[in-house]
Amino acid sequence: MKKSKLVWLLFIFSVTLYAQPHIKGTIEIDRKLGIIKCAFTLSKIPQIEAYSILLNKGMNIMYFKDASGELLQYDGFYDGKMEGEAIAYTLGGNTSSPKKLPSSFFMSYVGAFPVYGNEYNSFDFKGNIAINEKTLRAAEQTKWYPVLYDTKNDKVIHSYTYDLQIKTKDSSTVFINGSAPKKGSEVKLTSTKDHPLLLFVGDYEYNSYQGDYILNSDISKETSMLIFKNIEKIKSYYAMRLELDFTDHIYLMNHESVQKRKEGSSWGFNTYPTFAFTGLDFKDLVAENNRFSEGTLHFFGHEFGHNYFGNNVMSGPLSWFWSESFAEYLSFGVASDLGSESFLKDVLIYHTNVVKEGTFTPLTKIKNKKEIGENYRYSLGALLLQCFEDRFGKKQMNTILKALLQMAASETLTLNSLKRAAIQSGIDKKSYEKFHTKYIANTKFKEHIIDRIEAKYGSN
Ligand SMILES: [Zn+2]
């Protein structure tokens, strides 16, 4: 009796569930000048013990106010701390202990960003507010809106329900992630389901099929239908494999990078349920047989994987392993099951070649999420999971994936979570330990993974 009570208590205290904040207010956009002006009330803010409010470094704050309209003191405007693309603010000012995060606050700010015409920047990425002569793109990673950061648990909270009024005098179409795009110079978009707020405003057209949308592309209704039918196959694959329905409408967005891209190269990012692409002609997605090419299957396979292993697992030092390595590993299954075994082999061998020269710290010794670099998260981590599947079987792996997703809802995933999920799935402790020692904790884990993959799939 005593023991079960303790377990229950531990369970309660390990849960860090966040209520979803609500954002309401106005966004005024002068796209030709690159000016974004916002006035927002953030409410339903969860009780976070140690926090900061992140806002893009290009935004200048007019003020913070409390619910009764009184000005709030805040820190961060002088010698402020950068957190990625943003400056971190805390409410309370010069007091020795920062004020508790209120359950709601109002803030107003304005920012100006370069408008790229015929010229380019040396880089572009998801954290960049990108404006060119046709569109303005600001993903949630840019923190163009106030994003909450739980500093103690290293958790970014940027998925909000919303009620937003968008005014643009020089754009025809407005889109915010999770809502159908709308035409007009003054548009109201609301969502009772929380989403990371990707904003895409400009002079562009769109078309839809059964609630799914393709933005800023001139493809025909027939071609979009073929694309969505192929996407349906990937959705069904995941729904069956993970026994979790894929019920959301999705948005395919075409945008132009402000970095000049190599001819024929494409770049994609995912702000669930939006998939943003640059350098990809949507007409070319569907091959002559009306099906996605294997490369496209792999690409979408990875992005759709984030619908399951995405922001929900982005916590703790192994964040990138849980998100990118798992999404990439899942894409191997899409590539082989909806494509071909030979394509799977090509993909795996490609990844072994990517990691051959590098040195990598075993996951057991990772202290900081930055230690899991791109080759680690996209290639080596995914190969490790493929070795795991090859050793214990796909069925077992599916059970483990489901268990991890359940755990991620209430805790930061660790290697111990993986072990727990594996043992719960029926893998005996000894076999798990053996795998762990050789492929996870070992200083030569990379070599062991490569040997294993090459032994099974060949090399080149
Ligand atoms: Zn990814």
Topology of this protein?
Elements lengths: L1 H13 L7 E9 L4 E9 L7 E6 L2 E7 L5 E2 L1 E2 L5 E3 L2 E6 L13 E8 L2 E2 L13 E3 L2 E4 L8 E4 L4 E3 L1 E10 L4 E4 L5 E2 L2 E11 L2 E4 L3 E4 L2 E4 L5 H22 L8 E4 L12 E5 L2 E5 L15 H12 L13 H21 L1 H15 L18 H19 L1 H15 L6 H10 L4 H12 L4 H13 L3
Parallel strand pairs: 1-15, 10-11, 21-22, 22-24
Antiparallel strand pairs: 1-2, 2-9, 3-8, 3-13, 4-5, 4-9, 6-8, 7-8, 11-12, 12-19, 13-14, 15-18, 16-17, 16-19, 20-21, 23-24
Helix pairs in contact: 2-3, 3-4, 4-5, 4-6, 5-6, 5-10, 6-7, 6-10, 7-8
The protein binds zinc ion (ZN).
Name the strands of the widest sheet in spatial order. 5-4-9-2-1-15-18
What structural class do the secondary elements suggest?
alpha+beta
Q: Biggest β-sheet, characterized?
A: 7 strands, mixed
Distance between the termini: 60 Å
Could you tell me the strand content as a percent range? 25-35%
Low-confidence parts: 1-17
The CATH superfamily of the largest domain appears as tricorn interacting facor f3 domain
The DSSP helix count reads: 10
CATH architecture annotation name of the largest domain: Sandwich
Q: Assign an overall shape.
A: globular
Cα-atom Rg, whole angstroms?
23 Å
DSSP strand count: 24
Instruction: Look at the structure and give the mean pLDDT.
Output: 91
